[in-house]
Amino acid sequence: MGPWRCLLLLPLLAAALRAQQQQFMEYVERRLTLLEERISQWHDQSSRYSTELRDFKNQVLGMLETAEKEREAMRSEAESAAVRVDRLEREVDYLETQNPAPPCVEVDEMLMEKQVATAKQRKNEKYTKLTDCSDTIASVRAMKILKRFGSTSGLWTKDAAGNSEKIYVFDGTANDTVYVFPRMREFTLFSATRKAARIKLPYPWVGTGHLVYNGHLYYIRQQGPFQVIKFNLANKTVVDSSVFPAEEQIPVFGLSPFTYIEVAADEEGLWAIYATKEDEKNICLAKLDPTSLDIEQMWDTPCPRENAEGAFVVCGALHVVYNTRLPSRSRVQCVFDVSGTLAPEDASLVYFPKRYGSHSSMKYSPRERQIYAWDDGYQIIYRMEMKKKLEV
Prior knowledge:
Layout: H1 3-98, H2 109-121, E1 135-148, E2 154-157, E3 167-171, E4 174-181, H3 184-189, E5 197-206, E6 211-213, E7 216-222, E8 226-232, E9 237-243, E10 261-266, E11 269-274, E12 282-288, E13 295-304, E14 308-314, E15 317-322, E16 331-337, E17 350-351, E18 359-365, E19 370-375, E20 378-388
Antiparallel strand pairs: 1-20, 2-3, 3-4, 4-5, 6-7, 7-8, 8-9, 10-11, 11-12, 12-13, 14-15, 15-16, 16-17, 18-19, 19-20
Domain Olfactomedin-like: 132-388
Signal peptide: 1-19
Keywords: Coiled coil, Developmental protein, Disulfide bond, Glycoprotein, Secreted, Signal
């Protein structure tokens, strides 16, 4: 092809290229337009979703605020109901104290005189042991402070003879209500008395010398002469009562003037620790029949009342705990064995760890070989190290 022909084709090629370029630009513009439309749709949808999410968030916040207000209102109502229940319980307790319906327990003066005469005849006679228990306390092996509960003076204990794990609490030195916790754990955790069951006694108790023994509560009632009341804890009734056959009783412990009779339990059974005006310097001991409350035997002990703060019986031996007017370290300083197996000079001088003040009660558990003590409002357990009497 000649040169002149090439020159003729150049305009045609340029026109074709321009046409293709125009088509390509139109295509690109169409694609960009579609992308812009999709971006615009996405933006609109995103804005709508953001608005809906914000509205939902505000709705949830409003619901949470309403729920919080309702929760606070319910809590206030519950607290108000608890206050009303407590007030109602106090009013019921007050009405019961103002209108008591106690069972008939009368004092037979002829029977009382007969009991006193019989007890005097048995006084200081030789005691025949019921068991072969020959242990005595060697030392305090461990001390555990559980909590602080109630008044500075009081009593807490388990059943000394049964297998119940219930904790019985006598708060103070004069009242008519006993608190009962189902187990040690509940007593340790709960500080409010409304968590405990309450036993309303038909007669008010006095002092801290009471005892729970084999499903019965033996407690001291003062109305003229002192009475030992036997109360069945299962059916909440008085089973028996007995006027303690001792004339002109005085506080048994010099440092605990609120206790006139201390009912104690050991491996041999039930005991009563007391003092009389006839021999006001020393402490007396009596063996009780747990069924009839009769006095089986009585002893005058050489243990002085002065500076005594408590006492308990272990294997037929009375252990008297002493302190000082300004409370210091308590110690067992006098032991009287009714069987004569353990001489006073052979007994160990047992010291209790220094704590807060002085004991208002000390209850020995023959089943657990430990002492439940109340010290200035603190509830303490002493675990005892035992030895044979002949080894001491």
